[in-house]
Amino acid sequence: MGYTLIKNGTLIDGTGSNRVENAGVLLNDNQIESVGLLTDITIPDKDVQIIDAQGGFILPGFIDTHVHMVMEIKDIRESLNTPFAFKFYEAIGYMRRTLDAGITSVRDAGFTDLGVKLAVEKGLVTGPRMQLSINPLTIIGGHGDSWMRSGIDTTPKSYPGMPSGICDGAEQVRQKVREMLRAGAEIIKVHATGGVMSPTDHPEFTQYSQQELEIIVEEATFRRGIKVMAHAQGAAGIKNAVRAGIHSIEHGIYLDEEAIELMLENGTYLVPTLLAPISVVEASELNESMPEYAVQKAREVVEAHRESIMRAYKAGVKIAMGTDAGVMAHGSWHKLERAWINV
After folding, report:
1. Which domains does the chain have, with CATH numbers?
2. From CA 111, how far away is CA 199, in angstroms rounded?
3. Which residues fall within 8 angstroms of residue 19, CB to CB, at 6 or more apart?
4. Is 189 labeled as catalytic in the residue annotation?
5. What is the residue-wise DSSP string for 305-333?
6. Are 111 and 67 in contact (CB under 8 A)?
7. What is the mean pLDDT of the chain?
8. φ and ψ at 298, to 5 degrees?
9. DSSP string covering 234-298, please?
10. Element (H, E) at 63
11. What is the pLDDT of residue 341?
12. Among 97, 52, 49, which residue's Cα sits nearest to residue 72?
């Protein structure tokens, strides 16, 4: 690739340092070699590609810690009539929109397999760097099990590279962690509570016991300290996850004071995904793509979610940016600003 120089912009480096006007960034292949005032950068006596920032801002790439790169919620009727492989081609557009929005690294919270990551790394398609969880672990009848009471099961089918995540009990959860790791998981995702988008549960329902969650954490840790992220919305499930040693709580809708104290004691991260329930409600006002059970639960949790995140933020819980893109359109993370204004 050679050298690339980005110039004629104002640098904000993300460390809290003062911005640098008339800045430059010199890259050698994919590595930053020099950054600062343009006049202080030694430009090599070689062919250098010049990118003119045109007086704009030069920023590091952003990290979205909660996305679903091969998914974007649509009307179930459309999904049922769409060929299986079509989603991989749709994902090319999702990844492009993600990059165009300034997100260059993502933690995929489910449903993206190792082949997609390799396609990006090999240059076959353009996309962000990815940390994969493969498929979230969940219980029968829990968040992620889309069996309908009609008897129709709309849960996405497993395939080579995407093992089923449904498991119950100590031995099954241990086995499923091993299956996800074998398939290429770099982080393990578990659903510690119910959720908004699932048909037969509720965000406050607790899914796994603390013992089961501890087994999941133990099995992941055996692989050179691989971490576990937990979809956790109800207070009891959040506390089970934190006590079990889980690295990050995703969503955190019903945080109580005890849960916040536990997160502070254990250094647990919170990924609020404030846009997720808001996006479900907004989508329901535009069309019929959202199932009624999801819309009802989303309306119920929006205010509680906001209040929980506000308390956690004021208490000093460590917070990471995550959108839950896939529940809403990829590349729309800028809407987070609106959500955080009210926190």
Report:
1. 3-58 (2.30.40.10), 62-341 (3.20.20.140)
2. 18
3. 10, 11, 12
4. yes
5. HHHHHHHHHHHT--B-----BTTB-TT-G
6. no
7. 94
8. -65, -45
9. SHHHHHHHHHTT-SEEEE-TT--HHHHHHHHHHT-EEE--THHHHHHHHHHHH-S-S-HHHHHHH
10. strand 62-67
11. 59
12. 97
Burial class of residue 161, CB neighbours in 10 A (0-12, 13-18, 19+): middle
Q: What angle do CA 251, 133, 238 make, to 5 degrees?
A: 30
Confidence grade of residue 334 (pLDDT, cut at 50, 70, 90):
confident
Cα–Cα dist 182/186, whole Å: 10
Q: Tell me the pLDDT tens digit for each residue of 265-299.
A: 999 999 999 999 999 998 888 877 788 999 999 99
Per-residue pLDDT, 229:
98
Q: What is the mean pLDDT of residues 42-59?
A: 93
* d(C-alpha 21, C-alpha 191), whole Å: 46
Q: For tokens 């007086």, name the residue.
A: 55
pLDDT digits (tens, 9 = 90+) for 86-104: 999 999 999 999 999 999 9
Q: Where are the alpha helices (DSSP H) in 101-195?
A: 114-121, 170-182
Determine which one of 117, 176, 189, 239 is catalytic.
189
Whole-angstrom distance, CA of residue 324 vs CA of residue 31: 29
Q: How many CB atoms lie within 10 A of CB 52?
A: 11
Residue 80 has pLDDT above 90, yes or no: no
In this structure, which amino acid lies at residue 170? A
For residues 73, 191, 207 and 259, what is the CA-based torsion angle, rounded to 10 degrees? -110
What is the Cα–Cα distance from 267 to 7, expressed in whole angstroms? 39
Cα–Cα dist 132/161, whole Å: 12
State CA 203 to chain mean position distance.
18
- Dihedral angle over CA of 245, 188, 207, 210, nearest 10: -20
* Amino acid type, 304: A
Q: Which value, to the nearest 10 degrees, does the dihedral of the CA atoms of residues 168, 171, 176, 182 take?
A: 180
What is the Cα–Cα distance from 122 to 102, expressed in whole angstroms?
21
What CA–CA distances, in Å, run from 279 to 53, 176, 241, 244? Answer: 33, 31, 26, 31
